[in-house]
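Lab notebook page, bench 4
Experiment: in silico fold of construct C2
Operator: M.H.
Input chain length: 169 residues
Purpose: comparison with the prior construct
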Amino acid sequence: MSEQEYIIEDATLNDLERIVEIYNSTISSRKVTADLEPISVESRVPWFREHTPGERPLWVLRKDGVIAAWLSFQSFYGRPAYSGTAEISIYIAEEYRSQGYGGILMRRAIEACRKLRVHTLLGFVFAHNEPSLGLLKKYGFAEWGYLPKVANMAGVERDLVIVGRRVYP
């Protein structure tokens, strides 16, 4: 896929409705997020404001002007000693899945780490979410932790896998 076919840019507040729409579309699968009910755009405004382009960006990937996917860098644990570690999350709209956008965003995130002063990336993924675990493994992430039965998804207990990748020394 050529770069002319898509654009990745910092999200704006105007993008938040589509970001939330994509996020909410994953809830019913019980595979991607621990939220059990759709969230509101208003409830996500504080989360949106936690992102800053030069430190913890929130990117949207646009295909033909439509937001097809998004990626966020989130601070890990909120203490200064962890400032070089970030959790990444990727969400792709259903109609754009399996088209390579997850890999495009992953490569861009890894390339941006030095500039963002992030040396370690983390992902928190349900153990039954094989597509996400496969994507992360493809880009050098390894299992760093396993939390059995920590989530209750409408009566079904689910395990959480913590994956990580040291991006640079």
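Observations: Helices lie at 16-25, 41-49, 101-116, 130-138. Strands lie at 7-10, 58-63, 66-75, 85-92, 120-126, 142-153, 156-166.
Next step: discuss at group meeting.
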